[in-house]
Structures are given as structure tokens and as C-alpha cells.
Design a protein that fits this description.
With 224 residues, this protein is an alpha/beta fold. The protein is built from 7 helices and 10 strands. It has helices at residues 38-52, 71-88, 97-102, 152-155, 165-168, 188-200, 219-222; strands at 6-10, 17-22, 25-30, 61-65, 92-95, 112-119, 122-130, 136-145, 160-162, 180-181. A 5-stranded mixed β-sheet has the order 3-2-1-4-5, sandwiched between helices. A 5-stranded mixed β-sheet has the order 8-7-6-9-10.
Length: 224
């Protein structure tokens, strides 16, 4: 990732963060726990870029955790990414927040089932695997599930479970005997890792297309 210069934003959960990778140097800053705001994001980014002695225009792209996750948090991240990309005329990498949280536990032999609490009695899940080249593959698209009807032992008994959603919805682990990492949550530095490969493969979008992945279509009506 030495030649990958990118700013990343991840605010799909209560613990948001921003990160930057430039000329082989990487920095990570965490937002105060709670609902993220554009003001907090810009303040942290300004401090971080000043410390790195670079400007937004010096980067190759902007990346953000596009969800699924908190409706407000994902929307704020998307808006900030769009604004930065528009201002500096940069492409954007839309990175799944569920994919990002799997980074610490992914390897070439195991699948990881990511899970975050979706509130309203539901959960977000997605299944990922990293191949020998380091590319992360989505085996089952990020989706909304009903914890009452979902059992990981039936869906992917040979996988590793990762994400804070498994702590919230422990019943979904009934009968599952694999590894469980309930401390995993998406972090901007992990968004950077996935964005590096996406950028190299040309998987970027224009700022206008840097949209959130809400998964739940009705979330815009009921909020989160």
C-alpha cells in the first residue's frame, strides 16, 4: 500500500473513525463515541492532514464505509466523502462496512460471517473470504435478517463469526461451535486496506455515485 494515497471515513457504528494513507505512512483517528457528525469528521481530518503535511488534493481517492449500519452514520460518511471528492476532483471507493470488520480475522482458509445490529429487531449479515492473492470476496451479499429465523450453524457452520451484532443477537449462534469475535467493528484503517485493492482494480465511482448501502429500504422513513 506504499503507493496508495487515500483518505478513509467509517462511521457506520457508534465508534467512528477516519484514516489516511500517504507515501507509505498511515494515520488513524477515532471520533468520540456516539453519533458522528460532518463537523467532527472534518476537524479530525484537518488535524490529521496537518500532522502529515499533506492536502486533500494530494491524495488519489476517497474511501468510505458505505454500510450497512446506522442510517445517520452511513449518510454522514457518504456526504463527507462526496464533499471531499468533489472539492479535489477525486474518485471514491465504496467499501462495505461489514467487509471492513472482517479484515482482522480473514485468512485464506476460512470464511467470515460479519454481523452488526440493525436495530428494530433485525441484524445485518454478510459472508466474506480472502483468496491467496489477498482479494476479499463477498460470498453472500450484505443483507438484513430476522434473528428469530437465522442460525449460523445452518448457514455457515465452518465459518468464523465476527462483529458486535453477534453479541446483540446471541441466539443466532445457537448450535455454532466455531470462533466468535464479538469485538470486531468496522474501522477506517480497515476500509483503507480494502480500498487499496479496489482502487488498483479500478473499482471506483464518481462523487455523485458515492451513495450509502442502507439495505433496509424503509430506514429512510423510520430512522435509526
Amino acid at each position: 500500500m506504499n503507493n496508495f494515497n487515500c483518505i478513509a471515513i467509517e462511521t457506520s457504528t457508534q465508534q467512528g473513525s477516519v484514516a489516511a494513507s500517504y507515501a507509505g505512512r498511515q494515520e488513524l483517528r477515532h471520533l468520540a463515541e456516539g453519533q458522528a457528525s460532518s463537523r467532527q469528521i472534518y476537524q479530525l481530518l484537518r488535524e490529521m492532514l496537518e500532522d502529515m503535511n499533506v492536502a486533500v488534493a494530494d491524495f488519489s481517492c476517497i474511501a468510505f464505509g458505505c454500510g450497512p449500519g446506522s442510517f445517520t452514520g452511513v449518510r454522514v460518511a457518504a456526504s463527507a466523502a462526496q464533499a471531499l471528492a468533489y472539492a479535489a476532483n477525486l474518485p471514491v471507493c465504496r467499501v462495505s462496512s461489514l467487509a471492513a470488520l472482517t479484515v482482522p480475522v480473514l485468512d485464506t482458509t476460512k470464511r467470515v460471517v460479519a454481523c452488526l445490529d440493525a436495530r428494530m429487531g433485525e441484524a445485518y449479515t454478510g459472508i466474506y473470504r480472502r483468496d491467496e492473492s489477498g482479494l476479499v470476496h463477498n460470498e453472500l451479499a450484505d443483507r438484513l435478517v430476522n434473528p428469530q429465523d437465522y442460525r449460523l450453524a445452518e448457514v455457515a457452520p465452518d465459518a468464523v463469526a465476527a462483529g458486535t451484532g453477534w453479541r446483540e443477537w446471541g441466539d443466532m449462534l445457537e448450535g455454532f461451535n466455531g470462533e466468535v469475535h464479538v469485538e470486531c467493528r468496522p474501522v477506517a484503517s480497515e476500509v483503507l486496506q480494502l480500498a487499496a485493492r479496489m482502487y488498483a482494480d479500478g473499482q471506483t465511482v464518481a462523487p455523485a455515485e458515492a451513495l450509502p448501502n442502507y439495505v433496509r429500504n424503509t430506514v429512510t422513513q423510520v430512522g435509526q
